[in-house]
């Protein structure tokens, strides 16, 4: 189906530029020929986008278009991805994780469980302070210094913040 082509060609890519950030609808423009407001689709018309002019072979769609149907949401786009080192102080093992700036430590812990099934048996600390698992890294005072490191022309790989995991002997099962 030719109406699927723009969507299939963009599979796995960020298509947020297709949408107006305020209305969450497809971007529009004023057609210079007809002076009518039309959807802006530089990759071509796709499903639920009406044709440029009246046509007898197109039926308007009843219900919400696919971009308003939440069942098609596959994730959220993060404001900023950042990296954090999770260091198990008991074993000395370290994992470098890329996380969303909006993720809480509880969500990060959920992803870290693949490396340590007993991660809930640890106290998470940074700078000697116990971290609040319901808060983000930033809210816990672990700032993202990437912009400052870039300004100073320092390698950000050398300055990844570390969260230290201290084992609690509480017999929690993984």
Description:
The chain has 174 residues and is α+β, with helices and mostly antiparallel strands. It is built from three helices and seven strands; from the N terminus they run αββββαββαβ. It has helices spanning 5-9, 105-112, 146-151, and strands at 28-30, 37-39, 81-88, 94-100, 122-126, 129-130, 162-167. Strands 4-3-7-5-6 form a five-stranded mixed β-sheet, with no helix packed on it. A hairpin with a 5-residue loop joins β3 (81-88) and β4 (94-100). The model has no long low-confidence stretch (mean pLDDT 89).
Would you summarize the structure shown here?
11% of the residues lie in helices and 20% in strands.
Q: End-to-end span in angstroms?
A: 49 Å
Strand content: 15-25%
Number of strands: 7
Structural class: alpha+beta
Major sheet: order of its strands? Answer: 4-3-7-5-6
The SSE string, one letter per element, is HEEEEHEEHE
Low-confidence stretches: none
The count of helical stretches stands at 3
Please give the largest β-sheet: 5 strands, mixed
**Could you estimate the helical fraction of the residues in percent?**
10-25%
